[in-house]
Amino acid sequence: MDYRVVDIVRRHARSRGDQPALIAADARVTWAELDARANRVGQALRAMEVGPGDRIAHLDKNSIAYFELLFGAGKVGAVLVDVNWRLVAREVGEIVDDAQAKLLVAGEEFRTVAEQVASARELPLIVGGAAYESWIADQPADDPGREPAEDEIALQLYTSGTTGLPKGVMLTHANMGTLAEAVTDLWKLDSESVSLVAMPLFHIGGSGWALAGLNQGCRCVLVREVVPDQLLDTMERERVTNAFLVPAVLQFLCAVPGAAERDWSAFRSIAYGASPITNEALKRSLATFGCDLIQVYGLTETTGAITELPAADHDPDGPRAYLMRSAGRPYPWVEMKITDPSTGDVLPPGEVGEVWTRSPQNMAGYWHKPEETAATLAADGWLRTGDAGYLDAEGYLYLTDRVKDMIVSGGENVYPAEVENVLADHPDIAEVAVIGVPDERFGEGVHAVVVPRAGASMDADALVEWARDRLAGFKRPRSVSFVDALPRNPSGKILKRELRAPYWEGRERQIG
Predict the structure, then answer these.
(1) Average pLDDT over residues 113-128
(2) Which CATH class is domain 411-504?
(3) Considering Cα of 491, then 492, then 494, then 497, what sign does the dihedral take?
(4) E-strand spans in 89-165?
């Protein structure tokens, strides 16, 4: 595939320069303006001796500056690392350290965290709109001109590891190109689309979706954060045609009084992912927006979506309503198999095992983590997803559990080991295990099972408050239970299945 992320802005600046590319609350930028500003960013980076392979970190909510940095970095061969703005300073610092970032750019809203991180590392820092504008103001708008190879890294997104340490997922231009070129027809994205970018850009669900639309030349409407009534206003005002949302957000939107009475005639489709949708939420979303709904499943490591449940299979009252429990079928260019996790043997339809996938979307690997890369990505290209499930006779994928302990809460990945490591520092905790439990709003909630130290008197609310400055909000336990001892097998391993079982009793799917 002859594809480079930076060519998106170069190509459309030439062919549709005066048309809008990005729309935000306070600005509208044409393709020509976006290209020129990306050039200035590239020149500013070059002046700081940032070049091929160097990482630059960005800490802010969805903004036009993200795309200027992404394309500007690409024009000198550097790589953008967009950092989850929900993280506390300690967690942001871990990612900046791992990426070996040569520069941190942050929004004014995150000045305090950014200054803590940068000052502790003597890292160059640019904070706020005025400082950012000053940084690029005197730079020429000439394209730095670098043409990256397809196998070079275009974007580095971070996901926590099973040990709690962050892992930088390296996505190449070819990875991004497969997503952007292959799925847009299926998602009804074209040059006339108005694409809503409401999910965070530090996730593949945000950045991947945005780049798929921009690749087609459509205009993208950026939303800094989801406030349901304000988001509905934006969607209606801008005549949004396409969106990617997580089920929790769909539920929030449908719950706003009068949502169904608004004018949604422009909508073509809404893609959703990160968790399945309930029949009730599906019916309400269909009644509210009156457009196609498309479910997708994927990972950061697979550059996002690798399976799809199309609109035709979203029929909760029809004879094939059972398909709503599936994650759809793999795309034609995606190979998928179910394997025995212990032997790697391929299992027949209907048998549960670990989901493996192979496609041009599979990541290049984890940044500077060869052992973790080898454990996830086999030499022959097969990627172990860590999800358990089965394929039926028609090739539909059904997810049942996780081989790993990961929790997905509101579209955010939470690794119990990271939360456990932090909670274990509490002076009154002897042992702790973290599990995912059902949550009607977020799919799964983080739950801590705590063994107090002898003689300690513990309070659940106090423990959650204690973790406030140590863990991002989505990682903090939403609930806590106290036990005398944790269940273990003969080798001493904590039996998390036993801890989770009471919460998931009666539910076919043991993940949110």
Answers:
(1) 96
(2) alpha beta
(3) positive
(4) 103-106, 125-127, 153-160
Residues 405-453: tens digit of each pLDDT:
778 888 787 878 778 878 888 989 988 989 999 888 888 899 999 999 8
Rounded alpha-carbon distances, angstroms, from residue 375 to 18, 162, 229, 379: 48, 12, 44, 10
Joined together, the tokens standing for residue 492 give 């001493």
The model's pLDDT over 165-193, given as tens digits with 9 standing for 90+, comes to: 789 999 999 999 988 888 888 898 999 99
Q: Is 299 in contact with 411 (CB distance < 8 Å)?
A: no
State the chain's mean pLDDT as an integer. 91
What is the Cα–Cα distance from 490 to 492, expressed in whole angstroms?
Answer: 5
pTM, two decimal places: 0.83
Q: At residue 327, what are phi and psi to the nearest 5 degrees?
A: -105, 15
> Which CATH number is 1-19+28-172's, of 3.40.50.12780, 2.70.150.10, 3.90.180.10, 3.40.50.150?
3.40.50.12780
SS3 track for 183-239: CCCCCCCCCCCEEEECCCCCCHHHHHHHHHHHHHCCEEEECCCCCHHHHHHHHHHCC
pLDDT tens per residue across span 294-310:
999 999 999 999 999 99
What does the buried/exposed string (b/e) look like for 190-212 if buried means 16 or more CB atoms within 10 Å of the residue's CB?
eeebbbbbbbbbbbbbbbbbbbb
